[in-house]
Specification:
Layout: H1 5-39, E1 44-47, E2 53-56, H2 58-64, H3 82-98, E3 102-109, E4 115-125, E5 133-140, H4 142-205, H5 210-241, E6 247-250, H6 251-261, H7 263-266, E7 271-275, E8 280-283, H8 285-301, E9 309-317, E10 321-328, H9 360-370, E11 374-380, E12 384-392
Parallel strand pairs: 7-9
Antiparallel strand pairs: 1-2, 1-5, 3-4, 4-5, 6-8, 9-10, 10-12, 11-12
Helix pairs in contact: 4-5, 5-9, 6-8, 8-9
């Protein structure tokens, strides 16, 4: 037994030395932690369950504008606005009850009593082994809140400016529409009278030589073009003023009405018009009639030089829309020029070859835009063309 005493003493001495080493390491770590706490750039507070400050670093003292001895042992509530105290007490209670991190905004008070916005992050702190405390980090967010408010104010001012601008544009558009409508109404009777006068003059010439009648024919053609342009513009303006209603529309019935009214144009011509079974869509029957009428009239016009004109109405359905195309075997067009088709007064063929005003397809585009649809065309020179419009299954009305 005596022989074992030196061994026991040796082991006890080793254990004692190890304990002393560990205690020194703990003290070093504690000092290091306290240094990190006290010298951290972020404002740190350590609180007990009642919200009293048990430790505070220099950054926190600077944030509140108070010395350490003025804070330690005091609750934080006197250093914040009365409206923020309930929020702080709730956050502190939740930290100890739920043992989860909490975050909230309060207003703290400077030493001079001026309030400022702060973001609080709270977490449970068990580092000293005793009763758990709460570690609180406070961040001054006054500049952030001010910048956010400035941004909100700027956005609000911009919204007001945009609404004012939209109102001015709408009023100017209405004024322009009124002027154009009045212009058409005033000019149309005068041009019609001029056309009648030219007819009287032509009748009075009787069997005069063609050389005498040729200038008159040129004038008549020019006046007819003016009348056609006025009619197209009037139709376009009517479309802009049209009160539309979204309801189920059977496109088969609309197409039948279009073809019925196109019979005079197809008389004495070899024209075959066919169609896929068309869908029932949500839209306005007058608006859809205008679109199909313009497309069919366009196909009939550009196939008039064909001995056997063929027009076919096609349908392609996608998840969100119906695509309706009017295909013909007419003169077609070069796809490099397709962007001109739906522009105002955009023409790909001279008026000496094909009559037209360059307004009809613009009207179609406007109608489709109004319902959230779209238009496009495909063609090959001398091999025909297909004019498409895509109609949404759930259209939404837009101002155009």
């Amino acid at each position: 037994m005596a022989d074992q005493d030196p061994i026991v003493h040796e082991r006890l001495a080793a254990l004692s030395a190890r304990v002393q080493t560990l205690e020194a390491e703990v003290q070093t770590a504690t000092r290091h932690a306290m240094t990190l706490f006290s010298e951290a750039p972020a404002p740190y507070f350590r609180l007990d369950r009642q919200g009293r400050v048990t430790a505070v670093n220099a950054a926190a003292c600077g944030l509140l504008g108070r010395a350490e001895d003025a804070l330690v042992g005091k609750t934080l509530t006197p250093f914040m606005t009365s409206s923020s105290r309930t929020t702080f007490e709730r956050l502190l209670r939740q930290v100890f009850e739920d043992e989860l991190k909490q975050r909230g905004e309060v207003q703290l008070l400077h030493a001079d009593g001026a309030p400022y916005d702060a973001l609080l992050d709270l977490a449970l702190d068990r580092r000293d082994g005793g009763d758990p405390g709460c570690l609180l980090i406070a961040t001054d967010i006054t500049a952030h809140k001010r910048a956010h408010q400035d941004l909100l104010s700027a956005n609000a001012a911009q919204d007001v400016a945009l609404r004012d601008h939209a109102l001015k544009v709408r009023l100017l558009s209405q004024e322009l529409e009124a002027i154009v409508t009045a212009f058409i109404q005033q000019l149309h009777p005068s041009v019609a009278r001029a056309m009648s006068y030219l007819g009287i003059v032509g009748s009075s010439l009787g069997d005069e030589a063609e050389s005498a009648r040729r200038p008159l024919l040129h004038v008549e053609r020019a006046v007819q073009e003016i009348l056609a342009l006025l009619a197209s513009m009037d139709r376009h303006m009517q479309m802009r003023r049209m009160r539309v209603h979204v309801r189920p529309v059977d496109l088969n019935r609309v197409l039948a009405e279009v073809l019925k009214n196109a019979q005079p144009v197809m008389a004495d011509r070899d024209v075959e018009v066919t169609s896929d079974v068309l869908p029932t869509v949500q839209g306005d029957s007058r608006a859809l009639y205008l679109v199909l009428d313009e497309y069919v009239a366009n196909a009939l016009k550009y196939t008039k030089g064909r001995s056997g004109a063929r027009v076919h109405v096609r349908v392609h359905e996608t998840v969100s829309e119906y695509q309706i195309g009017v295909q013909d075997n007419g003169v077609g067009f070069n796809m490099r020029s397709k962007d001109k088709l739906y522009q105002l007064f955009g023409r790909l063929h001279p008026s000496s070859e094909f009559e037209g005003t360059g307004v009809g397809l613009v009207t179609v585009r406007r109608v489709c835009d109004r319902f959230g649809g779209r238009v496009w065309a495909e063609g090959v020179a001398n091999r025909g063309a297909t004019f498409w419009f895509a109609w949404p299954k759930k259209p939404t009305l837009h101002d155009v």
